[in-house]
Design brief:
The chain has 138 residues and is α/β, with parallel strands linked by helices. It is built from 3 helices and 7 strands, in the order βααββββαββ. It has a single domain, classed as Transcription elongation factor, GreA/GreB, C-terminal domain (Chitinase A, domain 3). It is 23% helix and 28% strand. Helix 1 runs antiparallel to helix 2. It is globular, with a radius of gyration of 14 Å.
């Protein structure tokens, strides 16, 4: 499932994501919430001002590649209420969203997807990260 690799989450994102888990941690999202919670439990937490610009934080735009197919996709990682897949806004509770949070450019993750499939995703670029742009309250 997850690989032991270094991930980073900002203090603000961690606080907000804990609230997301409190609200969405049961019912149909329970399994996805549990995976996200496991990722957050092992993340290095740092201030928004200290996070490197190549780390996927909440509201970041990220380009990732499916290592099996070579397909690349650009998405914006968002909170569940802001998700609009047709606009490329992917919830952190979606399998892709919880896989991407905290990764840096060049890192890969093997992650479970619906239907029992496992995919390996690699971060290609982070064209926009709120913290790097000085947007600390998104």
């Amino acid at each position: 499932m997850t690989q032991e690799r270094h991930i980073i989450v900002t203090e603000t994102d961690l606080q907000r994501l804990q609230r997301v888990l409190d609200v969405h941690g049961s019912g149909r999202n329970a399994e996805l919430a549990e995976l996200l919670e496991q990722e957050l439990a092992r993340a290095e937490v740092m201030s928004a001002q200290e996070v490197p610009a190549d780390v996927v934080t909440m509201n970041s735009t990220v380009v990732f590649e499916d290592e099996e197919t070579g397909a690349r996709r650009e998405v914006t990682l968002c909170y569940p209420q802001d998700a609009r897949s047709d606009e490329g806004r992917i919830s952190v509770l979606a399998p892709i969203g919880s896989a991407l949070i905290g990764l840096s450019v060049g890192q890969s993750i093997e992650w479970p997807f619906p239907g029992g499939r496992t995919r390996t995703l690699r971060i290609v670029a982070v064209p926009y990260q709120p913290e790097a742009a000085g947007h600390f309250h998104l």
